[in-house]
Amino acid sequence: MDRHSTARPTPSYVIIPARLASTRLPEKLLLSETGKPVIQHTYEAAQQAMRPLGVCVAAADPQILQAVVRFGGEAVLTDPELASGTDRVAAVIGQKRFAGIDVVVNLQGDEPELPGRAIDQVIQLLEDNPDSVMSTLATPIRTREQLDDPACVKVVFNRNGQAIYFSRSPIPFVRDWDPGLLEAEPAVFYQHIGLYAYRREFLLRLTRMPPSELEVLEKLEQLRVLQAGYHIAVGVIPHGASGIDTADDYRKFVQRQRSA
To answer: How far apart are CA 236 and CA 163, in angstroms?
Structure first.
């Protein structure tokens, strides 16, 4: 599909929220041992998607904005006091020039290896599920270590592919454990992939909604949506991408780039 075609069914845009502050790896989005900053790798990966009309970085810091401008990307400087990446995405997509966009994809700046087809998939999910206001992805969990890791967010969904719950705890909880469950087909356990597509008007409404009780407990923003009674469509992909959270993550990313 021609990414500039006017014939695509749903006008969509990718917004990448980006900020310098990072607890485990300071200024990681500007690290450039590969010859490109991480934010450029993520931007270029997003450009591989066929459905979106374009890609824009919602920059919380002038340094991020300058880095994007240097490699010829599109960026908007947002209020550094905004509470979350979702708020930054909404601040950009709420601008008048994006009024014709129906679906906005929130791609994290530290996900330089998420394939463009994943972005296309979350957009397609909203096209196929008119009752859903959001869509996201999941991938099978195949190790007990990952299942028990609170940093790995889990999701369960119904037969229609709508999310039932997200949690840092193992869900579903298995009363009588059987190691074979980790190898079952279809999978029993799923890791949530932090890529979202929103209907534009819902996203603007979401940022005005107060945090929900479950969201506060689990520190998972998507629970605000479920607790308010909305539907989130979930698609399954075979494997998740490796995000960059630590220095070791970045070292491995650089090695993969050099061997590619």
So the answer is: 12
User: What Å distances lie between residue 123 and 137, 196, 199, 200, CA to CA?
Assistant: 11, 9, 10, 12
At 17, phi and psi to the nearest 5? -70, 135
Listed in sequence order, the DSSP H helices in 105-259 are 116-128, 144-148, 200-206, 213-218, 222-227, 247-259
Token pair 């491995």 is at which residue?
252
| Token pair recorded at residue 21 | 């502050």
Q: Is there a contact between 250 and 26 (Cβ–Cβ < 8 Å)?
A: no
Beta bridge partner(s), residue 162: 233
Q: Tens digits of per-residue pLDDT, 220-240?
A: 999 999 999 999 999 999 988
pLDDT band per the 50, 70, 90 thresholds, residue 2: very low
Whole-angstrom Cα distance, residue 28 to residue 23? 10
